[in-house]
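SEVERITY: medium
COMPONENT: batch folding queue
REPORTER: lab tech (J.R.)

DESCRIPTION
The queue accepted two submissions in a row. Attaching both inputs and their returned structure tokens so the on-call engineer can compare them side by side.

ATTACHMENT 1
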Amino acid sequence: MSIASAFGFGGKKVRYAVVGLGDIAQASMLPGIKHTGNSELVALVTGDPEKARKVADQYGVEDTYSYEQFGAMLASGKVDAIYLATPNWRHAEFAIPALEAGIHVLCEKPLEVSVAQGEAIRAAAQASSAKLMTAYRLHFEPGTLDAIGKIRDGQLGDLVAFTSCFGQMVDPDNHRTENGIEAGPLFDMGPYPINAIRYLFGAEPVEVVSAVGVRRSPAQAANFDDTLAVTLRMPGNRLAQFTVSYAMNNVNSLIIAGTEGSIQMSPAYGFGDPIEQNVTIGEKKSHESFKATDQFGGEMKYFSACILEDREPEPDAEEGLADLRVIEGIVRALETGEPQTLPPFTRTRRIDPKEQVQTLRYVSPPANEVNAASPTG
């Protein structure tokens, strides 16, 4: 089957259960399913019966399950795949049984909260006939792919440095403030600049040079650092720095700079608004705005096509593990106050922007109903 036919709505659709009905599922993925053409929502799994009834009525879903009934859902024969949007530390709990049952898994990032748990998910995927994809939606976003293409074409020369600021004001009553560092900005927002560093440099960080956390909000002071600044060393003595925060007005921007030029993107990680690029090559400056797409419907559409076509998705378990490796190093640096050498890691597959650009007309549905409830997800 060709990629065009896989995305060309040949009639067969992948049947999804959405597991976890938090903000990201309700505000972004559920509305995006109807844009895919090759995916359909058939079941909901949540720990809140009232929420289940409300969402089921909204989307015309007949089958709802509690978390305790997850095994029954897997055995029902009514579901081909799950979209997993539970809290980060519950991903392995649901991903592994699904994969063991031959059910495909589209798992929100981070893949889990430790390399060990991520490795367990990867092992389950390798032993299964089912596929697993880590939900890196920006791997299918036109402005992001264009930036990768410019860098790989050598337009910026030799890369030197990266810097990014990604912040939002999180209500102290939000559930993300109640579960310590694993629900805080490092695990929730950190995967965005970390992943951007890795796909823009096309390389893996070798050291956490420094990691500093502060607690500005009294309501969050007992749980986690609400603002963190991190410096990473890349191969070739290049540097990458980022700040993530739950205590600042919304911002998501990055700058990648080399010997010949630079790219500034703002917004860089969000959805619902066009991704903006300001490019400087030598003395020449230019600006480009990339039309907002339904990034959630787009990533599900791509994953369903991989299932229907029996292709391996690009942002796989290894991609999720690559970011967890860095996150664990940052946690150690925060705990010790010392630099942390990262264990060796080789990424066997990276984004091919030229291939993705060729398939964008299939992957990115029109953004006429794009939702923008939160910059993360």
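ATTACHMENT 2
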Amino acid sequence: MKTIILGAGIIGISTAWHLRARGHDVIVIDRQAEAAQETSFANAGQISVSYCEPWANREAPLKALKWMFDAQAPLLFRPQLDWQQWRWALQFLGQCNDRAFARNVQQIVALGAYSHTALQQMVAETGISYHRLERGIAHFYSSAQAFEEAGEAVEIMRQHGVQRQLVSRDELLRIEPAFTPYKDQIFGGTFTPTDESGDARAFTQQLAQLCAQRGVQFLYGHDVLRLNQAGGEVQSITVRQRLDDGPGREQTLTADSFVVACGSYSAPLLRTVGVDLPIYPGKGYSATFRILQPDAAPFVSCIDDARKIAMSRFGDQLRVAGTIELGGFDLSLDSPVAQARCRMLSERIEEILPGVCDTRSEAEGGQPNYWCGLRPATPTNIPFIGHTGVGKLWVNAGHGTLGWTHGAGSGKALAALIAGERPAMDFGFLGQGRDPVAWHQRPIEA
């Protein structure tokens, strides 16, 4: 079979790898010059099976309202004249109850555990090096109330087989001594030794190179102009090459199957052929700081609950990432809101790890390497993986903040579905008997 994959992030490249392993002729198309140049470029680096609670919970609506006028808020809703945003928001509110939360957690954990195993198998097979640290993930709390409530999250994860542990402040500091200067502001934490961290971009780009060595064809620097549909199926796609001096030639490509793995851009593309999935861009930010004091910098990947930011060490650099901004397809870093959110990352690291990293701005002589990307968010935080209902057309998108955590397994699972097999996990795949679209759309009574 011949399969064309649209998108060269962790999701698309993983799908290509597993399809090629099954003998498919594979073409990967992406508008960028190489793999992992958009949402997979500079994320937090965490493989966080244990930290996957959906954004939608019973407390989320009140928090979202409170945060609307705080440019540094963890979740910032920026109203637009865009009915897709408002529809998504209403569907999100429909998930803000205990019953929906419990069901969504089960789905996310199932995919996370399956994906973690798939990643470990891929690393063992390929030997890819990507600043991998198998030291777990710690989550620390800066208020007594938040630490008390953490016990509920621990119990939920343990019910699903994830060994997340509640730890005291002293235990947390033994796990990661780097936070000792901030100890007076820490009330306790949680820790999952089986989680890990690593650079998603490095992994994805090396996996893409291995795909190419095994015969996968890449059309980088190409825009997807349209999906050509006839007789209830997608028969071809039309793409156009990007050139420095303007648009290049168009070409139409045929295949036995087509996979849309374009992150946030999947939804508008799919709507052109009548597939309407509730995927909306959530703008996330990161900063990559040079480590000045290697012995004082953390090795354990961590989450700061107060600011909802994550930090992971990549060699002599510290990656700090977080926040969600729901405001459309805006990738600017120079707006007042964007600058405030970037500044928050620098200020928070200096507060927690004083003097450990070079957090100076460019104006001060530093190189903070700020970045933003659009996380493809669904109201439930559950991605869409499976057949769209349109002939030959498949989707692998909507992974939100967990694309790196779920990437390896999502690619493996979709490759199995295209081959007519059922992946070995309890997950609501699109087109496989359940109706995951309805999960995102229908309010569920608590």
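NOTES FROM REPORTER
The two ends are 45 Å apart (CA to CA).
No errors were logged for either attachment.
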